[in-house]
Amino acid sequence: MNAAATSIRFFNTLTRRKETFTPIEPDKVRMYTCGPTVYDYAHIGNYRAFLFEDLLKRWLEHRGYTVTHVMNLTDVDDKTIKGSQKQQIPLEQYTARYTKAFFEDITALNIKPANHYPKATSHIPEMTSLIKTLINKGYAYKVPDNSIYYAIKKFKNYGKLSKIKPQALKTGARVKTDEYEKEEAQDFALWKAWTPEDGDVFWETELGKGRPGWHIECSAMSMKYLGETFDIHCGGVDNIFPHHENEIAQSEAASDKPFVRYWLHNEHLLVEGRKMAKKFGNFYTLRDLLKRGYDPIVIRFLLLSTHYRAQFNFTFEGLDAAGAAVERLRNFVRRLQDANGKGSGGRIAELVRGVQAGFGEAMDDDLNVSVALAALFDFVREVNALLDADVVSRKEADEVAGLMQGFDGVLGVIGEVKTEEALPKEAEALIKQREAARKAGNWARADALRLKLREMGVVVEDTPQGVRWRLEKKS
Ligand code: AMP
Ligand code: ZN
User: Which residues line ligand 1 (CB under 6 A)?
Assistant: First the structure.
């Protein structure tokens, strides 16, 4: 499909409006997403952010764009240094463990890999060069301890993303930590001169002995891989201030060009009404949930299925409902494999047109996935009714299967559906006994056998095409 033929709209945090998406280069999208700080196992709130970005990328690709996606790895900052010191291991060894875990997690969640995963520690020269430019242009200054700060009052647009009023800015006051609140907006550290607390984490550079601040990392790495102006930058809403505000200040002051055209921010995953966060102790890592037997694809579905700009509460009931929804989709695709009716007399063609339009319009409208999924599940219900009536022809079933494959290219939850799953020998015998009981009209025995099979994790269904079984997924 020609990407230009469609009209996608995104809510741009910069303007606080939905805008028609037009990339700089036709049919190509350059996108940067703030990656994990590899100081611990990421929690599923973080994965909500990464899954929203995955959905965004997959939708752009579905609409025909070629996406260049860069996700950084923050492997040096206040948190990583503190963590490695606590465990008394070198920073590199410490962050390598969580970087490996991150890649394992995103594979399990079926997140498509980015084109580049730049590590902050491999880009110190790019950062020092950017800081030098900022010093030369009068936006940065050195303080007596040799650290270098960004002078926010020099950048006239400071606050344009987070909407902080310039008069509220405490210019001249300085903050050295990477994270701070809006009320504390002040000059922030670009380069942190070495102090004994940093231990052996430092670089000897033209700027002196020290390490970069967190914000300069993303400015340097995004511009290196995507150019001085690129299309989309994402992150969670907690990144709007100070991180992304500071990225804009650094990048635009250095290049004199607009940094990013569309800023997209996802809302938080909550637990009992509060942001899921390490510092609140109310988090689940992906590993925690996998250990409890949950399917990572069900977790994917749960985290994807609410609109990215709406907060939502994580609950185990929600996870169970997500499991049932994924099973419904998989069962539907499985059923299509058996269809061989005489034809629906145009009903399938009409339903296909309807769901294509419903799903597509919703996704084009700022990735309104909940509306898109509602259209999809309506479609599944209606086609299931036609399958029940045994009127879906082989050709129609193939068309629907192809359509489902297309949707799954976006959702990534159905995957390969196999009819030939391994059935335990004992279950095979019970299914045969149940068939015999049904033939003999012994419904009580047939029901008892069905229950027994269910306890073994085998779900038996009587369909117009005969008896079907499937292994129940723990979800
Ligand atoms: P971090 O590893 O802390 O830098 O965070 C990685 C990404 O996860 C960032 O885009 C954050 O904004 C995002 N994030 C953190 N907590 C949550 C949450 N509870 N819900 C959704 N996104 C989050
Ligand atoms: Zn970032």
Answer: 34, 36-37, 45-46, 48-49, 235-236, 238-239, 266, 268-269, 275-277
